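During the no-cost extension, the postdoctoral fellow (Dr. R.K.) reprocessed legacy sequence entries with the updated structure-token encoder. One reprocessed record is reproduced below for audit purposes.
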Amino acid sequence: MAAPFFSTPFQPYVYQSQQDVVIPFQILGGEAQIVQIMLKPQEKVIAKPGSMCFMSGSIEMENTYVPENEVGMWQWLFGKSITSIAFRNPGPNDGFVGIAAPSLARILPIDLAMFGGELLCQPDAFLCSINDVKVNNTVDQRPRNVITGVEGFLRQKLIGQGLAFIIAGGSVVQKNLEVGEVLSVDVSCIVALTASIEVQIKYNGPMRRAVFGGDNLVTAVLKGPGIVFIQSLPFHRFSQRIARAVTSPNMRENPKFFVQIAIFFFLAYVVIVSSLILTDV
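Re-encoded structure tokens follow.
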């Protein structure tokens, strides 16, 4: 059994599978965390590409295709990696590997056996796994609404009985919903939830505003029973704040930008009017 994710980060944990396989791991750091996993001889860890931070000299790393980790055709066409990184300990002594979160995120250890063997996650939530974990990157068909401004809704599914590590931004809250209990959550703040939870999409305003993006315009109404993990700072919200902070001062310091935009629209208007006049003639 994996330790709860909200314990002290620097405390070492021990994961014991149903086959009595014992694997110690340790979550380091406060915001941009690292999970250090101890590997006995012939044990391995599967991780997403580019997540390795450090490893002992006895560990071998290889870029491999894992048939269990399904990647949709559209994800592959738009640049999603179809391979995974396998860290294996072929030596006679114990080794370790450090897997880092790709951004300012916390790492949550999830024992899938405790969640009925299935967990629905936000896109790119999966970081690494131990033992029996299958990653399915197809779209969740339950909420049949296309949400603009969010990279999708629960497009990643973890299946199996092993230990998976997922990432979440900011502070993380775990809500245990009782039978019939209802909870409304901003769609982008949902990290993962169990398959037993019913999900309905609610638009807090005109549909056109939700299509063209906005904050807190789309919420998910969750109905228990089940467990949901909620993050306070989704990555897309964090990146938008950085983009605004970078671009806004430049626009204020460059008044010629607005003049250039005005000239562009004026010339476009002249060209359109001229073409209409010449057509009538």
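Residues 108 and 152 are 21 Å apart (CA to CA). Confidence is low (pLDDT under 50) at residues 1-10, 140-151. The remaining legacy entries will be reprocessed before the final report is submitted.
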